[in-house]
Amino acid sequence: MSVRVGVIGVGMIGADHVRRISSALAGGDVVAVTDADLGRAQAVAAGVPGTRVHASGEALVADDAVDVVLVASWGPTHERYVLASIRAGKPVFCEKPLATTQDACRRIVDAETGTGGRLVQVGFMRRYDPAYRALKDSLDHGSIGAALMLHCAHRNASVPSSYTEDMMVNDSGVHEMDATRWLLGEEIVGVRALDGRRSTRAPEGVRDPLLLILDSASGVLVDIEVSVSAGYGYDVRCEVVGERGTASLGDEGAVRIARDGHRGSPVPQGWQDRFARAYDIELQAWLDAAAAGRCTGPSSWDGLAAAAIADRALEARRTGERVPVDLPDRPPFYDT
User: Cis ω on the peptide bond leading into residue 97 (within 30° of 0)?
Assistant: First the structure.
């Protein structure tokens, strides 16, 4: 069975998802698109015969020819499109963030739990990356004993001029916030933020790099370096220190070359290169689940928990204090 997909937002990642579903994956047909820039939507639709263009996200959700919705628009619009999909009873894949605040995510959780079944998957693609999955397996199997500390780094070669300081938390560091919860299998209960020496390469108005320190419910310490002007490439790292050893994130698909007295491997220049396979696996899993009438993967609750950490991290950066992360009780709805 092939599900008919409507895509809201066809900028860089949305257009890549249209290409992925149309030419690289099985079980999905893109039948409708929309974007704040309708000219861009029309250009993307022209490359997928039979795809219609809608004037708004709400109109796309209401289209009877659309079975499932993929939201890849600007973050502040996510809440309204996800809620519209829930009201229409249509499965929805929402790129991170689920919404830009904890309160907005709570409204989505409340709406979804009132439906009787899961409809929302959040695009935390690192959970589908083979290297991250291997790291998760090593922890779950106890090969290094109980986790004591996690060291994480999220480095971009550069970012566009539109990049703001809060995006270091909401758009970049949020991936590590979710990955940390997933790897440890527990919630984060506190966060601190430290700004060090500002890079001369930092974008105007952005303090870069940033160090976040998270405390997990069992006391595991997590440090997250976010650097958005590293220059040399896109570099994501994660090392877990356990009671009996360590486990580190491996290079996905990297080839090591030794020549002329040097040994090394190439560094990806962007997230598209580093996580291309993870995106493929993630969206194929969503299409397969939708065709079977199910919803799997990162949930609205995961989106809410990550937003709560991000909210508190922004507060910690403003105040210089450790800020507790308070979550509501997790609905049993998300236990299965």
Answer: yes
